[in-house]
Amino acid sequence: MARIEFENLAHAYRPNPATLDDYALQPMSMVWEDGGAYALLGPSGCGKTTLLNIVSGLVTPSGGKVRFDGRDVTGQSPRERNIAQVFQFPVIYDTMSVFDNLAFPLRNRNMPAAEVNRRVHEVAEILDMTRELPRKASNLAADAKQKISLGRGLVRRDVAAILFDEPLTVIDPRMKWMLRRQLKKIHQQLKLTLIYVTHDQVEALTFADEVVVMTNGRVVQKGGPEALFLRPDHAFVGYFIGSPGMNLCPVELDADGVKLGAQRVLLDADTLAALKHAGGPFTLGIRPEFVRLAHEGEPGAARAQLLRVQQLGNYQLVAAQCDGHLINAKLEPHLRVPDGSVWLKLAAPETVFFSNDERIPVKVAERTVR
Ligand code: ATP
């Protein structure tokens, strides 16, 4: 397996890109560690497949370099790079048996028959397909065919990396969960370098050691689930991770806090100084999990109008409007929420502030009075 490095990598499908918007991938430098399990997460069109195809060699970047273990592979084909890629839909030989499909990449590399047999059985066992090995692939259901595609990626141990492009799309939800667990287990056993593309945050967070979040052709954060949840580097990460995502409100700096429209939210001196230093435009971000009901006039709180309350079993999802901005709060299921006007604590230790969408590195003090 390989350590993969991007050096000023960029890609534009159109010739002569003039502005950053012309790039499917904006210039970036980053490292994918040897043996790491990464998920590439982002909405449709953000550049995930382009990035994956640049790693595999299916797309040659219009700028920068790709290195495997320090070796420049930018001009090499997928075969020369020794990459296994599993796509959204099964790529298998219908006329062959399941065994022969799994054995194909090994026989292609002249592996001795006994070793082929051992590897194929090992992978079939992991994927719970041992009984299907003699069957013709054409007779199998779509999810079983996709399991063969996964198996063909996993059967080789000499690859630099295995790339998955939304491989579980055709798999039914219950099986999806099981296969994700299996992939994670395989990764722990074999320490493969895996890059897994998805637009589903649950899939990304359960599979990967590190999630790489993309938007508009940019990587905006690379980190574990906790960092993405508690310390989003970019407002987009706050919005995209979580259900519902982070409350994001544009605010203006004031003498002793920030103003959300006409509402004033008091802040501690250190936070104010950090905001001043960073410069605006500012966004206040707080996850629904951390918003709580406050007393009237409580420091760090703002008045809001209740819109609706949804009882969801283990919590109630409260939606309120604070000076034209929607605030979601996940509150204890039995807490009584007053009708009409409510006070919500928005400046809490878990609150984050963004300057121009980038997080300002400061923690709001427990007590938010100056
Ligand atoms: P999805 O989840 O929908 O597959 P994605 O995040 O994988 O999206 P890409 O397929 O990499 O995104 O696309 C990134 C941008 O590049 C999009 O604006 C897309 O329209 C554009 N694009 C992708 N492939 C090509 C191509 N072959 N020619 C021109 N533009 C392309």
TrEMBL record:
The protein's name: Oligosaccharides import ATP-binding protein MsmX
Transmembrane residue ranges: none
Gene3D superfamilies on file: 2.40.50.100, Nucleic acid-binding proteins, P-loop containing nucleotide triphosphate hydrolases
Assigned keywords, A-Z: ATP-binding, Cell inner membrane, Cell membrane, Membrane, Nucleotide-binding, Transport
SMART domains named among the record's database cross-references: AAA (SM00382)
PANTHER family (UniProt xref): ABC TRANSPORTER ATP-BINDING PROTEIN (PTHR43875:SF14), MALTODEXTRIN IMPORT ATP-BINDING PROTEIN MSMX (PTHR43875)
Cellular component GO terms held in the UniProt record: ATP-binding cassette (ABC) transporter complex, substrate-binding subunit-containing
Molecular function terms, GO-annotated: ABC-type ferric iron transporter activity; ATP binding; ATP hydrolysis activity
ABC transporter domain span: 4-241
